[in-house]
Design goal:
Helices cover 50% and strands 18% of the residues. α6 packs antiparallel against α7 (283-311), α6 (237-271) runs parallel beside α8 and α8 (317-341) runs antiparallel to α9. The protein is globular. By secondary structure, it is of the alpha+beta class. It has a four-stranded mixed beta sheet. A four-stranded antiparallel beta sheet has the order 4-5-9-8, covered by helices on one side. A two-stranded antiparallel ribbon has the order 1-2. A hairpin with a 2-residue loop joins β11 (273-274) and β12 (277-278). It folds into three domains: 12-125, Orthogonal Bundle (Butyryl-Coa Dehydrogenase, subunit A, domain 1); 131-234, Butyryl-CoA Dehydrogenase, subunit A, domain 2, CATH 2.40.110.10; 238-381, Up-down Bundle (Butyryl-CoA Dehydrogenase, subunit A, domain 3). The structure holds 3-thiaglutaryl-CoA and flavin-adenine dinucleotide. Flavin-adenine dinucleotide (FAD) binds at residues 99, 133-136, 140-142, 166-168, 209, 214, 362, 365-367, 369, 371-372, 388. Flavin-adenine dinucleotide is lined by residues 99, 133-136, 140-142, 166-168, 209, 214, 362, 365-367, 369, 371-372, 388. Residues 234-381 form the Acyl-CoA dehydrogenase/oxidase C-terminal domain. One of its GO terms (molecular function) is glutaryl-CoA dehydrogenase activity. One of its GO terms (biological process) is fatty acid beta-oxidation using acyl-CoA dehydrogenase.
């Protein structure tokens, strides 16, 4: 009987079909060859490696679960594996793909008109058009139902006023999916760069997700034509449905960050000789690796079952909440543990764990904080009573 792999202890790969395995290995190879050599310097320089965007598009990773419109039409498990491999490189790359596909292409596909789909989706699949998603506001992101950004009807146009904060891809986006309050409740708008009164400003001095662009968006009486309103996006449920798509990808992505950190620490511990033997011969080090492996394995199985439910059309948002909460917490704890095993070297950007650990401080906050997901699961279990 073959021994279990340290990186796939329960042979999760055997539960994948041939196409899923091939997609994972293609994206994994691309991350090894094209991302690993540049990502530490990009993080250090607080720079998103924009030169990789055309390659990401050529690999067919943008909006990859959409059928038609020049998109790849993959299943959700494949999309999850893509997120896992990208985040093994860096959370910033997975964020870029999540925002473009799950937060911008998804709402255009799910809530847009046929004209909007034809106009934007092929261009977004090829990265000719980059999107961002504006929901969070300066006064508090966890409670988007109280947003202050608002749009008022003016003839056949809308006049948009307000501001969004902490917006991934904002500074490079050609279009922003913006959620605003109207007399009719929350609606979604496609705001294009160049529209008068729409400006962005990048958020600098971040110590997390440094290889990713984060920006503020400002709307000063922006005139948005009716044809840029998403006709089927009505109420808070619409943006929350987009979040469900992105949170799903994050639940897989966090496994990649954990595996990257754990592998780096394991390679180090096998050759670091202290008190006469390698670190991997020490009882407490073995216990710590066993614990990391246990948590990664649990997260892999959780993500795969979530993906199978999603592919069968049976996935519930609170199941996504549990997976996002469990897997990001796991990724953060594993990368911190890996950082510690590297000793002083662990604080250097030369090793990936501190970069993953710092990135995951954003990942545990965005797309619903850990507390928000605990409360969403708690509400589901306790008869729907809202404890927010
Ligand atoms: P609530 O009454 O619970 O819900 C309103 C309506 O929405 C439905 N719903 C959902 N639908 C789909 N997916 C979900 N996850 C949903 N959660 C709720 C719900 O059934 C209801 O429908 P209906 O038909 O009854 O109207 O609303 P609430 O105001 O009580 O809020 C609930 C709460 C706190 C869970 C929600 O506000 C929330 O999720 N807050 C967190 C906000 C958040 O996650 N923001 C993320 C911003 S985007 C981002 O961070 C991008 S980072 C990207 C990257 O770089 O990767
Ligand atoms: P707050 O909502 O003010 O929360 C503060 C604290 O209060 C948190 O610890 C929270 O868990 C806790 N809390 C909240 N409610 C409760 C409660 N009921 N009971 C107990 N505790 C509670 N947003 C976008 O719209 N688009 C993007 O592309 C995007 N990208 C991001 C990129 C980065 C790098 C980061 C860091 C954030 C991004 N965000 C984006 C914003 C993100 O979604 C918000 O930061 C997040 O939703 C939390 O909102 P907040 O920061 O305002 O914290």
């Amino acid at each position: 009987m073959a021994s279990p792999s340290a990186f796939d202890f329960y042979d999760v790969k055997s539960l994948l079909d041939e196409e899923e395995r091939q997609i994972q290995s293609t994206v994994g190879r691309w991350v090894d060859e094209r991302v690993e050599p540049v990502i530490a310097d990009a993080f250090d320089a607080h720079r998103f490696p924009e030169e990789l965007i055309p390659e990401i598009a050529d690999l067919g990773l943008l909006g990859c679960t959409i059928d038609g419109y020049d998109c790849a039409g993959l299943n959700n498990v494949s999309y999850g594996l893509i997120c896992q491999e990208l985040e093994r490189g860096d959370s910033g790359l997975r964020s870029f793909v999540s925002v473009q596909g799950s937060l911008c292409m998804y709402p255009i596909h799910a809530f847009g008109s046929e004209e909007q789909r034809q106009r934007w989706l092929p261009k977004m699949a090829s990265a000719e058009a980059i999107g961002c998603f504006g929901l969070t506001e300066p006064d508090g992101g966890s409670d988007p139902g109280t947003m202050k950004t608002h749009a008022k009807k003016d003839g056949s146009d809308w006049i948009l006023n307000g501001a969004k904060m902490w917006i991934t891809n904002g500074g490079i986006a050609h279009l922003a999916i913006v959620w605003a309050m109207t007399d009719d409740g929350i609606r979604g708008f496609i705001v294009e760069r160049g529209m008068k009164g729409f400006t962005t400003r990048d958020t600098l001095k971040k110590y997390s997700l440094r290889a990713s662009i984060t920006s503020e968006l400002f709307f000063d009486s922006v005139r948005v034509p009716q044809e840029n309103v998403l006709p089927e996006a009505k109420g808070l449920k619409a943006p929350l449905s987009c979040l469900t798509q992105a949170r799903y990808g994050i639940a897989w992505g966090a496994i990649g960050a954990a595996i990257g950190s754990y592998k780096t620490a394991l390679d180090f511990a096998q050759t670091r000789v202290l008190f006469g033997s390698p670190l991997t011969h020490k009882q407490t080090i073995q216990r710590r690796f066993a614990e990391m492996c246990r948590r990664i394995t649990t997260a892999q199985l959780l993500a795969l079952q979530l993906g199978r439910l999603k592919d069968q059309g049976k996935m519930h948002p609170t199941q996504v909440s549990m997976a996002k909460w469990n897997n990001v917490r796991m990724g953060l704890d594993v990368s911190r543990e890996a950082r510690d095993i590297l000793g002083a070297g662990g604080i250097s950007i030369e090793y990936s764990p501190i970069r993953h650990m710092l990135n995951l401080e954003s990942v545990i906050t965005y797309e619903g904080t850990e507390t928000i997901h605990e409360l969403a699961v708690g509400r589901e279990i306790c008869g729907g009573v809202n404890a927010f």
